[in-house]
Amino acid sequence: MNKQILITAIILTLFAVIGGGLVSLTEQNTSEQIKTNDKLALQKTLNTILPATQYDNDLTSSVIRIAANKLLGTKQQSSVYIARKNNQASAFIFNAVAPDGYNGNIHLLIGIFSSGEIAGVRVVKHKETPGLGDAIEARRSDWILGFNTHSLNSLSNKQWKVKRDGGHFDQFTGATITPRAIVKATHNCLLYFKQHQPELLQSAGTAKIKE
Amino acid sequence: MSNDYQKISQDGLWTNNVALVQLLGLCPLLAVTGTFINGLGLGLATLLTLVLSNACVSAIRHWVRPEIRIPVFVLIIASIVTIIEMLMHAWVPGLYTILGIFIPLIVTNCSIIARAEAFAAKNPILPSVIDGFMMGIGFLLILILLGGLRELVGSGTLFDHSELMFGEVAKDWTLSFADNYRGFLLAILPPGAFIGLGLLIAGKNYIDLKKANVQTVSIQPATDQLTQ
Predict the structure, then answer these.
(1) CB A196, CB A189: distance < 8 Å
(2) CB pairs under 8 A between A and B
């Protein structure tokens, strides 16, 4: 009887070893490709905000980590990508969260030129209603492009709102909450940039040394 | 022997269809069929898993003791799905991002372990592979049918995002059937999946019923002749 149990255990172990072996073999052979893919995907998203002509460094590896901040809507450290041209920091791309979407958090990438102008805003992840709130995606409408070139100087604090609240930006028919959340998050990100610009430029300098 | 294969095929594609008759694997079925391409992607991944797991299970059926067969089957299926997931992440990243959690969840698709237990564990390799293939095709067909229907009704397009699967060449395969179509939300949201699947099941039952009627009618004259 004991022998039977032993044989059964050995068979089971054998299968576990073979299965595990095959999985780790595949893992080894695909991990490089997967890393490249993830990097390419990130590069592609960053490029939609900041055209490749605007920088000449490796954007995906020129990253600094910043502490959680209420203005960015972040609860943990987040990454900031620093674009450089001719060794001058030309733009910063922030990960920001709009916490007050219709269906929870809307994750954004917000690019800001060193001058304080918006380079571009893109929605990375959201749970807004398909067909109503999802017009914030660049592939569904060009509403999100309306932020380009705006800054704290081009619009006053009162104008950084949707039209229904007396501001500058359009809302969609049937969905005001979603655009309102994004306008607010973008405005807050600009405020964050204004407050922290000196530190950011300084860390941009150190990030360059690390490269 | 060829009769056997015919029966296996008919079982997988129609009489014992995974989605329409066994009603297995409904979670991924209902969740990803928002578009044709999503359905096709998950369908192909499930098909591949079914064929491979049936082949492995059948190959080892004489060595595995009955008391540990279920853990061994689970182990085999989990390894296969993990490998497929990694390969998809490496070679079709766009589709992988969209299907996301539903690829690893193929492990929990009951139809796979059901076929391992009910068929592959008792039959030689070739019939098992064919059984896995036909069951997979049956599931795939329902996935793309439901995906296509929901995409057509919900967004007025077909084959949108083909490039995620077939590369840049497929960028303009998207068929758009109406300009300025506002979309029909219900079809894209989960209720649309339930209603769509319900209609497909009803459709299948209707066809079966009609067939059965035709058969009884054609048998009638024969019995009449006998009594004469």
Answers:
(1) no
(2) 59
- Confidence class for position A20, pLDDT limits 50, 70, 90: very high
Euclidean distance between CA atoms A91 and A84, whole angstroms = 7
- Determine the distance in angstroms separating the CA of B6 from the nearest CA of chain A, rounded to an integer: 33
Domain spans in chain B, listed from the N-terminal domain onward: 2-227
Q: What is the pTM of this model?
A: 0.75
Q: What is the pLDDT of residue A210?
A: 43
* CB pair distance less than 8 Å for B68 and A12: yes
Q: Are A171 and A164 in contact (CB under 8 A)?
A: yes
The structure tokens 């655009």 sit at: A179
pLDDT 10s digits, B162-175: 777 777 777 777 77
For A19, the token pair is 């299965």
At residue A140, the 3 state secondary structure works out as coil
Which residues, including other chains, have CB under 8 Å from residue B214's CB and lie 6 or more apart?
none
Q: Do A26 and B87 touch (CB under 8 A)?
A: yes
- Is B93's CB within 8 Å of A129's CB? no
Query: What does DSSP assign to residue B12?
Result: I
Nearest to A12 among B71, B90, B189 (CB): B71
Quote the tokens at residue B97: 């991002």
- Residues of chain A contacting residue B153, judged by C-beta atoms under 8 Å apart: none
Contact check, Cβ <8 Å, B188/A131: yes
ipTM score for this prediction: 0.74
User: For residue A136, what are its two tokens?
Assistant: 């914030």
Structure tokens at A74: 């972040």
**A8 — contact with chain B (CB < 8 Å)?**
yes
User: Measured between CB atoms, which of A15, A40, A130 is closest to B189?
Assistant: A130
Residue with tokens 């992840």: A125
CA distance B139 to chain A (A): 26
Kindly give, in sequence order, each residue whose CB lies less than 8 Å from that of residue A136, ignoring residues fewer than 6 positions away: A106, A123, A126, A128, A143, A144, A178, A179, A182
Cα–Cα distance list, B170 to A58, B161, B164, B166, B167 (Å): 30, 8, 8, 6, 6
To the nearest whole angstrom, how far is the Cα of A165 from the nearest Cα of chain B? Answer: 26
Cβ contacts of residue B219 below 8 Å, gap of 6+?
none
Q: What is the pLDDT of residue A63?
A: 86
pLDDT in the model for residue B2: 65
What's the one-letter identity of residue B31?
A: A
